[in-house]
UniProtKB/TrEMBL annotation:
Listed Gene3D superfamilies: Isopropylmalate Dehydrogenase
Keywords from the UniProt entry: Manganese, Metal-binding, NAD, Oxidoreductase
Biological or metabolic pathway of the protein: Carbohydrate acid metabolism; tartrate degradation; 2-hydroxy-3-oxosuccinate from L-tartrate: step 1/1; Carbohydrate acid metabolism; tartrate degradation; D-glycerate from L-tartrate: step 1/1; Carbohydrate acid metabolism; tartrate degradation; 2-hydroxy-3-oxosuccinate from meso-tartrate: step 1/1
Listed EC numbers: 1.1.1.83, 1.1.1.93, 4.1.1.73
This protein's name: D-malate dehydrogenase [decarboxylating]
Amino acid sequence: MREYAIATIPADGIGPEVIAAGTQVLESLQKRLSDVKFHFKNFDWGSDYYKKHGVMMPADGLATLKKFDAIYFGAVGAPDVPDHVTLWGLRLPICQGFDQYANVRPTKILPGITSPLRNVGPGDLDWVIVRENSEGEYSGHGGRAHRGMPEEVGTEVAIFTRIGVTRIMRYAFRLAQSRPRRLLTVVTKSNAQRYGMVMWDEIAAEVAVEFPDVTWDKMLVDAMTVRMTLKPQSLDTIVATNLHADILSDLAGALAGSLGVAPTANIDPERRFPSMFEPIHGSAFDITGKGIANPVATFWTAAQMLDHLGEAEAAARLMRAVERVTGAGILTPDVGGKATTKEVTAAVIDAIHSSN
Ligand code: NAI
Ligand code: MG
């Protein structure tokens, strides 16, 4: 029996709805496979916790999480708490504290889901975006002076280090190498940003030498939005900075049909710490409590978690079940269907049990 301790942090908005669905699906997978066991422990951290205790998680939160094999995360954000408080209070401290420097965001058009792009169907758009997740524009370096005065200044400094850029490039080249097309696009903005981004390009070229079997090219981030929209077939693996990849992956999610299907993994490739798996979307106040949140992103990120834990077969089984359900048209309203979160979840559980 292979056993895994998984910390669940559903947090805010639709987070608890989709994490409950994901946990049920993982439990059914455990029943089906009989040689894996998940031990879930739930943490009630997030905006409600903040309103009671003045912090999003306890001071020893990271020490508690460190003992787990993986973290399964919902979403943070509440209408009545500033977004920078919720984000910097929970999600970013986990990503940074556990040095989860590779943020891996697969996107493809699942069967039964329609892309807003005309003439683009399953197979035409199958990407993995690798986002640098520890530095760059979100390093937290900056400050404000002369608050409220006419001469007030605010700085937000992007930090690029040779170590940080080299390790994310190696991760991206290795991932590209593991995919059938062995194709990597390095996103940059080295025409306008002359220091960090030029170093990013130079390091990409250095690391590329280690991977002679990977074909790679460079794109400026603005032109990249055009290529993603007009020539989605020309892309496979993509690597970009923290900010650039944040924006590009929302676009990728939308082009693949909905944010509700887009997953993400925050990985510590060296496995010193637990990695964290979550849907890309936020807490979606507009649909919270309505029972119609799309759980597919949360299922897909569970498959990423299984892959990371070395359970590739279970991961593949889960994705086959999800694709069977989307292919059968059992879809939530965000992707044009009428099903509820519970109906999609039940259908995926059925598919897990009825497949061989
Ligand atoms: P959002 O992702 O919560 O929602 C954007 C739109 O997509 C909404 O119309 C929502 O209904 C829809 N949507 C999102 N997930 C869906 C799902 N699973 N099924 C169906 N429809 C779905 O982004 P928004 O509105 O910008 O932010 C809301 C809150 O979430 C804010 O407080 C924000 O800071 C936070 N947020 C948190 C993130 C995280 O925890 N990783 C990521 C993005 C936003
Ligand atoms: Mg984002």
